[in-house]
Amino acid sequence: MPENIRAKILVVDDDDLFLRGLTMPFQKDFDLDTAHDAEQAIEKLEQEGPFAVVVSDMQMPGMSGVDLLRKAAVAAPDTVRILLTGYSDVDTATRGINEGRIFRYLTKPCSAEVMRAALNDAIEEYGLASDRARLETELEEMAYVDELTGIDNRRRYFEKGQEEFNRAQRYRRPMAAMMLDLDHFKRVNDTHGHAAGDAVIKEVASRISRKLRQVDIFGRYGGEEFAVLLVEVGCARAADVASRLCRAVAAEPVQTDAGPLPITVSIGISELAPTDSSLSAVLARADEALYQAKAGGRNRVETAGSKVIEIRA
């Protein structure tokens, strides 16, 4: 935890005298809160957290300390748990560690030095757990989010797209796929550099995202190529959407460090067919349509099996 932030600690014991004696030495070092029973402790964990550490006595009226810490592991899984007890037998300690998933087991009475060391260790563990959670989130984002554009990467697009494909096939619902490719993008990179190319890809992704619904699935397929899955949309409506996307991309030049660059896209569309066995089959037809749109002059839309649609500003 940051050095200028005091760790928030919850101490639970039904003995007021012990509770005061336990917390008094640490008032200046930690942000301390207390509870007199398990029910009050759970309420505070849920409503007043997050707490870095919860310290609970073993023997309390009603719910025991082990049961409390077991519930605390569910209510506040990141909070580190310490159990205090007047019983030093191994069975009690083992039950507490296994059922309460506790970090440390201390026998009463314990000195302020022992408690301080346990709290400091627990706070360090809480910080490490927070770091691990943050790292896991970052790794998950890296696994599913395209770093340049912030949209779904190819892997995530296919995962979400296959789920939608399965749903549409099962319930016989319409679905349309688009393949989009930036026109003459190699020329942008070769003439203005890769930094300008990255700026173009990022801005085009943003313009497309703003024109799609939240339920639609949009991902970077690779390089300057994107893929869209339109949920509950047939081919005719998909063609209208694609035309709007073309116009949105071409509406104004993309601002880059190399200056403003006019950009257009070509789009191929394919509609889900009853005989399709996978999302890849739908995308393959859309990709063929994209190739025809490119061959027809670019900045246009073609639907698989139909004529090219030229985009007019």
Which structural traits does this protein have?
2 domains, 48% helix, Rossmann fold, alpha/beta, six-stranded mixed β-sheet, Alpha-Beta Plaits, 313 residues, elongated, 10 helices, 21% strand, five-stranded parallel β-sheet, single chain
Q: What's this entry about, in short?
A:
The chain is of the alpha/beta class and 313 residues long. The chain has ten helices and 13 strands.
Tell me about this structure.
There is one protein chain. This protein is an alpha/beta fold and 313 residues long. It has 2 domains: 133 residues, Rossmann fold; 157 residues, Alpha-Beta Plaits (2-Layer Sandwich), CATH 3.30.70. Helices cover 48% and strands 21% of the residues. It contains 10 helices and 13 strands. The strands form 3 sheets. It has a 6-stranded mixed beta sheet, sandwiched between helices. A 5-stranded parallel beta sheet has the order 2-1-3-4-5, sandwiched between helices. β1, α1 and β2 form a beta-alpha-beta unit. The longest helix is centred in the middle third of the chain and has 33 residues. The chain is elongated and about 85 Å long. It starts with 7 loop residues before the first strand and ends with a strand.
* Element string (H = helix, E = strand): EHEHEHEHEHHEHHEEHEEEHEE
CATH architecture of the largest domain: 2-Layer Sandwich
Instruction: Give the structural class.
Output: alpha/beta
| First-residue to last-residue Cα separation | 55 Å
Mean pLDDT: 87
pLDDT < 50 runs, ≥5 residues: none
Radius of gyration: 30 Å
CATH superfamily of the largest domain: Reverse transcriptase/Diguanylate cyclase domain
The largest sheet has its strands arranged as 7-8-6-11-12-13
Summarize the main sheet.
6 strands, mixed
Provide the helix percentage. 40-55%
Number of domains: 2
Count of β-strands: 13
